[in-house]
């Protein structure tokens, strides 16, 4: 198969731990982005699942929505991790104490759903409604804890290796693109859109916009040799 232009829209894959119950409930009470999914669980008991150095930043992101926060750091509360956390976030212990954030260092054995967040009676005319999920966190030792929802901080990787195998330069774990030239990569004719690329925006509206932006850019270029000023404006404003 041959093509004059290739648009990579292959996305990223979340690198989730093997903890039972995490992958099964991913996207349904267990989330990655507080801006995308936080409002539905505002003012509820929240769990943060991440290594200790990630916790202060996550707390800052969620404090306008949740005040009852438990950080499940899964055994990463070590002397080395504390030093790293202090280096990146000086005074982090006082900060967490000020906002009543509990750090739970026990190893998580499993996460069990106790209640579904929606029951089908929600008003479909509303853009968003509260969701009242409930989970039990079991540990390898000691009593369990209950939380309504979780936000996490895990890594991600390219879903496909097509970009790397064709020689596209990587920016971290993303396909490096030039935003001034239709999101083209370093390989002429290969473009990358959505969260697989290096503009570091990871949400559905962005994926839609970046795909449309590149499509319009390439269509304009195929007709004129390059996008006109009106086409560039169309990309930016639509």
Task: Provide a descriptive summary of the structure in words.
- This protein is an alpha/beta fold and 238 residues long.
- It folds into two domains: 6-13 and 158-237, FAD/NAD(P)-binding domain (3-Layer(bba) Sandwich); 17-152, FAD/NAD(P)-binding domain.
- It is built from seven helices and 14 strands.
- It has helices spanning 34-37, 55-62, 79-88, 92-98, 162-165, 204-224, 229-237; strands spanning 6-8, 12-14, 30-31, 46-49, 69-72, 102-104, 108-115, 134-139, 145-147, 149-152, 156-158, 170-171, 174-175, 190-192.
- The chain has a five-stranded parallel beta sheet, covered by helices on one side. It has a three-stranded antiparallel beta sheet with strand order 7-8-9, with no helix packed on it. A two-stranded parallel sheet has the order 1-14.
- A hairpin with a 5-residue loop joins strand 8 (134-139) and strand 9 (145-147).
- Helix 6 packs antiparallel against helix 7.
- The longest helix has 21 residues, at 204-224.
- It is globular.
Fraction in beta strands: 15-25%
Q: How many helical stretches?
A: 7
Low-confidence stretches: 227-238
| Overall pLDDT confidence | 90
CATH homology superfamily of the largest domain: FAD/NAD(P)-binding domain
